Amino acid sequence: MTRIVARPLTPAAFAPFGDVLEVTGPPDRIINEGACGRWHDRARLDFGPGGRAGLSLFRAVPRALPYRLSLLERHPDGSQAFVPLQEAPFLVIVAPDAGGVPGRPLAFVTVPGQGVNYLRGTWHGVLAPLSDGVFAVIDRIGPGPNLEEHRFAAPLEVVAG
Amino acid sequence: MTRIVARPLTPAAFAPFGDVLEVTGPPDRIINEGACGRWHDRARLDFGPGGRAGLSLFRAVPRALPYRLSLLERHPDGSQAFVPLQEAPFLVIVAPDAGGVPGRPLAFVTVPGQGVNYLRGTWHGVLAPLSDGVFAVIDRIGPGPNLEEHRFAAPLEVVAG
Fold first, then answer.
1. Cα–Cα distance between B150 and B26 in angstroms, integer?
2. Residues facing residue B93 across a β-bridge
3. What is the DSSP annotation of A53-122?
4. Which of A55, A82, A159, B140 would bridge with B51, disulfide CB 3.0–4.6 Å?
5. How far apart, in whole angstroms, are the C-alpha atoms of residue A91 and residue A68?
6. Which segments of B23-102 are extended strands (E)?
7. Residue B156's domain is classified under what CATH number?
8. How far apart are CA B149 and CA B102, in angstroms?
9. Nearest by CB to B141, which of A36, A41, A87?
10. How many domains does chain A have?
């Protein structure tokens, strides 16, 4: 079985696939008379023609490592951001596109306080919290299925780094 | 000093001002082969003409009750959603409009797992976590200041219910 080692999630490693949503470094702006920092416009949101931004909530069953990966999906018409409502890690799996199907996947584990935004059309795994998890999801509302799925001929195994 | 009693945040009480973002009741959809529930499109997002959705992060200094309220603000060109990245309550203050200035404010305290979306043009207090807090903020990116402020002639006191 092909093994994928889950690595810590960093903005540099994740940049081809999307944005890491986290507070790091100084804020871009100080607002509210000094009482609040704003890290401004940190996600490459894209809802395509005919779509609009929506905010939904997801609750997914907890997963664990090692994790059996049999399916990736992508949303051709829009980006999809996941903001965890609890300080707990979750598993992030992405893959480059290789001619309409996923190439070799990469896996990351977040640290508490990190969210992610998948760029429009990016192959990714389904929401996989490592404990009970609720997420705010900012994605496209609009016509069309906006979903492609790819099932691997043989499952891959994602293991802790 | 005028006293405002902070109440528990409920969707019914908050509806004229915005949306409570939380997982309650059954999901609108089950996805990912049964492994995830989706509470779909739960915020009345509105970024106005000439605006687009942006995702930013805010970190604000903790406040406490009683809380001295001297300022409300509103964003005439867009809604503004606050999603807490930790399971902790925060203070939500809103007011109806009364001829271009805020009417009598209402105050709410969230329970862990709740976020809010302020409707476009709704008078509200600045971000006021009750402990160290980071929030994902979904609001309008676009031209113009998109900000009106109202300073009360005398501060109000928000107290625990």
1. 40
2. B107
3. EEEEEEEE----SSEEEEEEEE-TT--EEEEESSS--EEEEEE-BSSSSB-S-EEEEPPTT-EEEEPTT-
4. B140
5. 12
6. 29-31, 36-39, 52-60, 67-74, 80-84, 90-95
7. 2.60.120.480
8. 10
9. A41
10. 1
Q: Is A28 helix (H, G, I), strand (E, B) or coil?
A: coil
| 8 Å CB contact of A85 and B138 | no
Q: Chain B: nearest CA to A52, how far in angstroms? A: 9
What is the span of the domain harbouring residue B89? Answer: 3-160
> In chain B, which residue ranges form alpha helices assigned H by DSSP?
11-14
> How far B17 CA sits from the closest chain A CA (Å)?
17
d(CA A54, CA A64): 29
Q: Do A42 and B56 touch (CB under 8 A)?
A: yes
pLDDT in tens, B51-96: 999 999 999 999 999 999 999 999 999 999 999 999 999 999 999 9
ipTM exceeding 0.95?
A: yes
Expressed in percent and rounded to 5, the helix, strand and coil fractions of chain A are: 0, 50, 45
Per-residue pLDDT of chain A (161 residues; tens, 9 = 90+): 899 999 999 999 999 999 999 999 999 999 999 999 999 999 999 999 899 999 999 999 999 999 999 999 999 999 999 999 999 999 999 999 999 999 999 999 999 999 999 999 999 999 999 999 999 999 999 999 999 999 999 999 999 98
Predicted TM-score of the model (pTM) = 0.98
Residue A121 tokens read as: 């059309």
